[in-house]
Recover the amino acids of this structure.
């Protein structure tokens, strides 16, 4: 396939996974800021005649989007056959409706912009809530792969007698999928949100699962207030300190402290976003999906 992979700083492991899956080359990319704060981008390795793959996680997106756009457009100008994006974390999926007059529907606006810059997209567990699929947001071929299988294998190997706990209704289908693959039961809690940092969690009857190890799972750990509140309710219900498992380790400033104050036993995340809590590798499945996407959508010579 001989793709040319450019990866953003800190994404060397993603670049290596993509190069291995695609039998490709890791190119050299120079990124820096001018003194006035504007972005400088240079594709040091020539992209002419190559299928270019940009490896750029989109956590903290406003710091990266300008350089991402410049890199994609420059690759085209310099003769790339195609330009794809592998973003293990995909930003701007949360604001998927207009809740108050005048609000931007960020998922739609961001999807329109990104679709103008690249030919295809691969990501991992985007926060699809009101959108049924990425096709409702992106006009380019876009594929979302799931970390559920990887998480289930980790739980099966590391947590005997697990009880999978979804912290709210949005996690129900996801928690069920992990539990089925891991061969263990699951429950879903009821959440009422009053604000970004104010949530109420109600537990169903858990008497039949007493003695199992509770494993709280969610797609994104950001403020961690939902997980921390759920952990406290589980402790109050007589469970031992639960594990917390998340796909995307966004972790706001006080998120880790909130979880530790709630008395969790361990915090485990996937390596979609590099973080000290990473214990579950998902880069291989992301790279495989990217290889398949490129094979299906690369232009003819």
């Amino acid at each position: 396939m001989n793709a040319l992979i450019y990866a953003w700083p800190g994404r060397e492991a993603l670049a290596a996974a993509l190069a291995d899956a695609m039998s490709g080359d890791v190119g050299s990319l120079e990124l820096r800021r001018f003194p006035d704060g504007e972005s400088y981008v240079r594709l040091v390795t020539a992209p002419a005649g190559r299928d270019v793959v940009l490896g750029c996680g989109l956590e903290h997106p406003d710091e990266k989007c300008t350089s991402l756009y410049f890199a994609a457009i420059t690759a085209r100008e310099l003769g790339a056959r195609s330009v794809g994006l592998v973003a293990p974390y995909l930003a701007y999926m949360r604001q998927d409706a207009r809740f108050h007059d005048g609000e931007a529907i960020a998922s739609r606006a961001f999807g329109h912009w990104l679709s103008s810059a690249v030919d295809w997209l691969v990501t991992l567990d985007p926060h699809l809530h009101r959108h049924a699929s990425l096709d409702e947001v992106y006009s380019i071929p876009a594929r979302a792969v799931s970390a559920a299988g990887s998480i289930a294998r980790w739980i099966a190997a590391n947590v005997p007698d697990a009880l999978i706990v979804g912290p709210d209704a949005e996690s129900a289908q996801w928690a069920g999928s992990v539990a089925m693959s891991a061969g263990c039961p699951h429950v879903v809690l009821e959440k009422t949100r009053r604000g970004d940092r104010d949530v109420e969690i109600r537990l169903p009857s858990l008497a039949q699962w007493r003695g199992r190890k509770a494993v709280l799972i969610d797609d994104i750990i950001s403020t961690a207030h939902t997980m921390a509140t759920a952990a406290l309710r589980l402790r109050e219900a007589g469970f031992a300190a639960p594990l917390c498992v998340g796909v995307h380790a966004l972790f706001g400033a006080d998120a880790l402290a909130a979880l530790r104050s709630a008395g969790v036993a361990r915090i485990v995340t996937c390596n979609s976003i590099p973080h000290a809590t990473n214990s579950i590798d998902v880069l291989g499945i992301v790279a495989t999906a990217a290889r398949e996407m490129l094979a299906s959508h690369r232009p003819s010579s």
User: Anything to note?
Assistant: The first helix runs from residue 12 to 22. The helical segments are 12-22, 65-77, 106-115, 148-158, 172-182, 225-236, 255-261, 283-297.
